[in-house]
Specification:
The protein has 159 residues and is of the alpha/beta class. The chain is 47% helix and 18% strand. It has 6 helices and 5 strands. Bound molecules: 5-O-phosphono-beta-D-ribofuranose (RP5).
């Protein structure tokens, strides 16, 4: 079964990245979670980026804050689609440093960047990528979107 790799630069990113773990679990998609630091464990990052596609991972979600080099470096090493989550970490000035470090990739090396602390959307996007070639996952995404609609309709009734 297709799996999503979720990596983050530090344990301190986990409270934000948990949203990706939770939504993927809700959508019935397996995840493999790890801490991989571009600056503190560069050899591990290199190994992860080079080999992720060979052990069943189909999408990588990478979160980091401040000088957030992890998503871009993983994208430079891996043939898999990489979704970047900018984290408003304690070493981030105001979040813009995290966003721009992940967003402003050079041509040829894309990172699909979600909003600041937007790990939930990263999880949904990863599920949608898998769902584009997996009918069961696609059905779950359709049901999820219906549930969003139902919540808004319910909320407007209760005004
Ligand atoms: C980044 O630095 C990590 O992704 C984290 O967002 C930030 C702070 O890391 P810690 O000092 O909390 O380990 O590389």
């Amino acid at each position: 079964m297709a799996k999503v790799g979720i990596i983050m630069g530090s344990n301190s990113d986990l409270p934000v990245m948990q949203d990706a773990i939770d939504i993927l679990s809700e959508l019935g998609i397996q995840t493999e979670i790890d801490i991989v630091s571009a600056h503190r464990t560069p050899e591990k990052m290199f190994d992860y980026g080079k080999n992720a596609h060979q052990r069943g991972l189909r999408v990588i979600i990478a979160g980091a804050g401040g000088a957030a080099h992890l998503p871009g470096m993983i994208a430079s090493l891996s043939p898999l689609p990489v979704i970047g989550v900018p984290v408003k970490s304690r070493n981030s000035i105001d979040g813009w440093d995290s966003v721009l470090s992940i967003l402003q990739m050079p041509g040829g090396v894309p990172v699909a960047t979600v909003a600041l602390d937007g790990a939930k959307n990263a999880g949904i996007l990863a599920a949608q990528i898998i769902g584009s070639s997996d009918a069961e996952v696609l059905d779950r995404i359709i049901a999820y979107k219906e549930s969003l609609k139902a919540k808004v309709i319910e909320a407007s009734k209760n005004l």
